[in-house]
Amino acid sequence: MNVALFIPCYVDQFYPQVGIATLQLLERLGVQAVFPMEQTCCGQPMANAGCEADSIPVYHNYVRTFADFDYIVAPSGSCVYHVRKHFNIIEQTPAVKHVRERTYELVQFLTEVLGVTSVDAEFPYRVGLHQSCHGQRGLRLASDSEMSPSRDGHLSRLLKQVRRLELVELDRYDECCGFGGAFCVSEAAVSARMGQDRVADHVKNGAQVITGGDVSCLMHLEGIVRRQKLPLRVMHIAEILTATT
Amino acid sequence: MLQRLRLYRISETIFLQNLTHMTHAQAAKRFTADVDRTTWHDGALWFVRQKRDRMAYSLPEWEELRELASQIKNHTLSRLDEYLEEFERNATANGIRVHWAANAQEHNEIVLQIIRQHNGKRLVKSKSMLTEECHLNPFLIKEGIEVVDTDLGERIIQFNDEPPSHIVLPAIHLKKEDVGQIFHKHLGTPEGASDPQFLTETARQHLRGHFVAADVALSGVNFAIAETGGFVVCTNEGNADLGVTLAPVHIASMGIEKMIPRLDHLGVYTRLLARSATGQLSTTYTSHFHRPRPGQELHVIIVDNGRVEQLGRPDFRASLKCIRCGACMNTCPVYRRSGGHSYDYTVPGPIGSILSPNVDLKKHSTLPFASTLCGSCSDVCPVKIDIHVQLYKWRQIIGGQKAMPAGKRVGMQLLAKVLARPRLYARLGRVARRMLASTPSALTHNGTINPWAIAREMPEPPKQSFREWYAANQK
Fold first, then answer.
1. pTM for the whole thing?
2. Contact criterion met (CB < 8 Å) for A195 and B457
3. What ipTM score was computed for the predicted complex, to two decimals?
């Protein structure tokens, strides 16, 4: 199995540890993923801002970079959702169709492709899982409260396998964190308030760590946690699934 | 680079000044500035959303109902002309007088004409978002007609001279203390009185006189049934029924999208509507009107006002499936924290943000961006409108027509150019991280230059990007 790692631009620049954990996690599960250097970004920042036409060269760069791999795995549900959903505006060549079908969010790849049901990790903390909307409602990686009282999903199922990890129940199971790409600056007041409310839910319910499958939400929440100097850590799920004590 | 940033700021300022009203972000900023009120507003609407959830979960066939409701509406919209004509035929045969209005002006004039024909002076109205959309009240008042909104929430905001902030809960932005003040001013209740039961009783007594004296009563329409030529009005307070039962003339205003083909279809929608709107099994009153009662005149005004244009847009046609339950507002994390007035459109929230650009793209160009695209609206929608998908599509149209600040547009073009060139991207990334690390925090965290910093620390730039680590550590 020929697997490529897609480390989205802002993860590459600001959260290399997430990329490293992703690589390690895959390695432990027997997957030797490679990181093609020609990759940059999925094009979502421009597209969500209403400039998807400008993103087309970025889409083509993505397709060129990853067309020869069986699977493309990224630690970010939002970018994966963008590739799958919004690469529809370029010509649907076999290569384009291929990368759209074969780009997977990390936990989705572990669960749906590798069939992973347990992980060898230990993490003795109370953890709050932030359901990132594009993973949850976009890729349907978890049930959502609009449609079902179930609180089940790929990420929570794997987290429950981690030894000594206690998953805390949040008041609002799947409220958006308010990052939203350019929204975080164009609607800064509402974005900030949403993030503060999201963090407060974790604090109220005793979480020591906030985790999730999308670094963008986590970057926003971490920014708030650090501004408020709260005793909380913010970590990507790959960092927890590779944790040992 | 700073100079360029400043230029963008200036261009954005010019863009914003050219808008004659506040952008959503500006209005939302003002709303969120009152932290406690924002908390209360968010909580009040979340409470309604949770009530809706319990109702939805209690029906095993919920998703099936949504799908059915969606398909019936899709079908109806695909043959809307036929169903409207069928409705007109059957309604006319029942003795209802049917009028057609191409726009708000025509609608308002038809209403006025009917009132004048009966030498009417006093109109009571139950809830109708369409008449809000048409600005009927100011039009009639200017013509010397007394207009009284009889829905409690509507009456409160009518006193307060402001538009509804929610389509189902028009005064949800006001607390009971606010209502107490308004009633003190307009109805002479004791200052500081805010007991809801007392205030409601006062409103009942006040409204009773207007009900009895009304010459004409106007209602909205929730569903018009082509097969029977009748229509259905769903309310909770009984004000629509009291108004139209007492007055010798009943006018019902409806948008063309209110059609359903058959009476059999009605149950699908009444089951979804009240559950989605307020978490009730059904509305307190679900009133069927099929013909005028003896001695009464019954008019139906069928209004286009931009709907046909929206019907002609394949990407946005589905927005006309909306049954106005308001669930997308209650669920929207942005709406809950910015208030309905921040949208500056008759229908606020997610559904309003896909309807309003059809009416005036430039004026409402910031609304499709007043969303994180979280998708909750689409999943809560009882008729499965793909709201967040349409928000994304409106953004592209706004971007394509350059109806956004030039700074943002140029910035995005530059960003795209960098991200399409892997080596340039890697180099600039390294430079940007170093700059961020070496620039004083007072500058990087200046909220005017960097709105991120109003509430958030910037990520701490690592020495190595992932790709640099990979190049150094992997072969």
1. 0.95
2. no
3. 0.97
